[in-house]
Amino acid sequence: MKNPLLAPELRDYLESGNDEALTLFLDSGHPRVIADFLSALTPSEAWKILSVGDLSLAAEIFSEMDEWFQADIAETLSRQELAHLVTEMAHDDRVDLLGRIPENRRLRILSALAVAEREDIRKLSAYDEGSAGSVMTSDYATLSPELTAVEAIDKLRHEAPDKETIYYAYVLDGKRRLIGFVSLKDLILAPPHEKVEEIMNLGVISVRVSDDQEFAAREIQKYGLIALPVINGGDALVGIITHDDAIDIITKEHTEDLEKFMAIQGSHDAASYLRTPALTHFKNRVFWVVGLAATGLISGGILHHFEATLSSLMILALYMPMLADTGGNTGSQSATVVIRALALNEITAKDMLQVLWKELRIALMLATVLAAVAWFKVELLSGGTPLPGGFTLTQVGGAIVLALAIQVVTSTLVGALLPLGAARLKLDPAVVASPALTTVVDITGLLIYFTCARVILGV
C-alpha cells in the first residue's frame, strides 16, 4: 500500500545526500509503515534509501513491501546486490521472492549465495505449491531435553538475532524428531536448574509438510498459536509456520474463494488491481460470462414455449423480475453459508441430508414471509387493473405467490445442494456453486412460474 505523505521530503534527502536523515527515517517506525512510505517512490529511489541503512533492516523493510513492488526493486538490482539482500531475508520470504524472478536470473542469483543458503532455498522450494511445506520457514529455535532452563535461555539469547521467533522453542531428540516444545515464558518462570525435558509440553500440535496450507493456517487460528511446527513423514521437524504467515494464507484463501464464487478464473494472486493488465482481467472473466450468456438460450426457449400464456395475460411479465431476484437471493444465501461451513470443516458432504433438512425448514419460513410481501406488492401495483379473460386479481396473485414460494424453496435447496455435491465429487464448491446456481435458478424459476400460471389460471 502506498503512502505518499513523505515522498517529497524523502526525495529531497536523496538529492541533498542527507544520509543521516534517511537513516533516522528507516529507524523511525514499524518496517511495514516504512515500506508503505517507500512504496510511493520509484523502485530505484526506494532501494537507494534502503541502501543507506543496515542491510538486515533493509531486508526486513523490503519483506514488508507488496509483492509487485519487491519484484520491481529486484529488477533494478545487480546480481551481487540481490544476493546480499536475499541472504538477509527471512527464509520463507526469500523463497517467495526468488519464485517471482525469471528462472535464468534466479539461477545466477543462487550461484552467488553461500552453500547453506542455496541448499535451504532448494529444500523449501521443493514442496508442492499450496502445501504446508511451501509456506513454512526453516528459521526456528530448537533445544535438547538435557539442557537446564538457564542454559536454554542463554542459548536462545545467542540465537535470537538469527531466528524469526523464539517465543516457542522446539525440543528434539537425537534424530531431530519433535518430542515437545517450551515457551519463553515457561523457561523464564522455571527454576534455573530444572531441565527442559521436565518443563516441556508434550502435547505438540503440528502438521505434515504435505498438509494443505489452509488447514495449517486454520490450526494456528483454532489454537491461538504463535507458530506451528511442520514435520515430515519420520516426525522430524523441518520448519514452522508463523502466525503472520497464517494471516496471509487465510487472506489469500478468502480472496480466492470470493473470486471463484463470482466466477473469476486465473491464479487468484494478491496482485494490485491497477497493475494487472486489462487483458488479464478480461481472460479471467470472459469464460463464465460467455458460458452463462449462452445458457440464456435455455431461458429464451422456455419463454418462447410459454409465449401464448404470456400474451394472454401480460400482467405475468411484470412480476418475472421479482421471481428471478428472490430466487437468486435466497439461493445465494444458502450457497454462501454452506460453502463457508465446508471451508471451516463444520460440515462435510456426508452431512448432506442434515443440511438439506435444515435449509428446507429455513426455506419454508422464508417462503411464508416472502409470499406475504409478494401478495402485498401485487395488491399495491396491480389493484384496480382490469384483467382479460375474466380473471380476478386474487387468481392471478395466487399464481404469482405460489410460484414465488416454490421458487424460494427450490432455490434454497439448490443453493445448498450444489456446493455439497461439488465437495462430494472432490471439486471446489466455490467454483461450481455460483455460476451453476445462477443458471439453475433462472431456468427453474421460469418453469415454476409459467407452470403455476397454467395450472391455476388455465392459460
UniProtKB/TrEMBL annotation:
Q: Which SUPFAM superfamilies does the UniProt record give?
A: CBS-domain pair, MgtE membrane domain-like, MgtE N-terminal domain-like
Domain CBS per the UniProt entry, residue ranges? 136-198, 200-256
Query: Cross-referenced Pfam families, in alphabetical order?
Result: CBS, MgtE, MgtE_N
User: Which InterPro entries does the entry mention?
Assistant: CBS_dom, CBS_dom_sf, Mg_transptr_MgtE_intracell_dom, MgtE_N_sf, MgtE_transporter, SLC41_membr_dom, SLC41_membr_dom_sf
Bilayer-spanning residue ranges? 286-306, 360-376, 396-418, 430-457
* Membrane-topology descriptor: Multi-pass membrane protein
Task: Please give the chief subcellular localization of this protein.
Answer: membrane
Places the protein is found? Cell membrane; Membrane
Which keywords accompany this UniProt record?
CBS domain, Cell membrane, Magnesium, Membrane, Metal-binding, Transmembrane, Transmembrane helix, Transport
Give the matching SMART domains.
CBS, MgtE_N
Q: Which Gene3D superfamilies match?
A: CBS-domain (3.10.580.10), MgtE N-terminal domain-like (1.25.60.10), SLC41 divalent cation transporters, integral membrane domain (1.10.357.20)
Q: Which PROSITE patterns match?
A: CBS (PS51371)
Entry's PANTHER family? Answer: MAGNESIUM TRANSPORTER MGTE
* Quaternary state and interactors: Homodimer.
Protein name (record): Magnesium transporter MgtE
Q: What lineage does the source organism belong to?
A: Bacteria, Pseudomonadati, Thermodesulfobacteriota, Desulfobacteria, Desulfobacterales
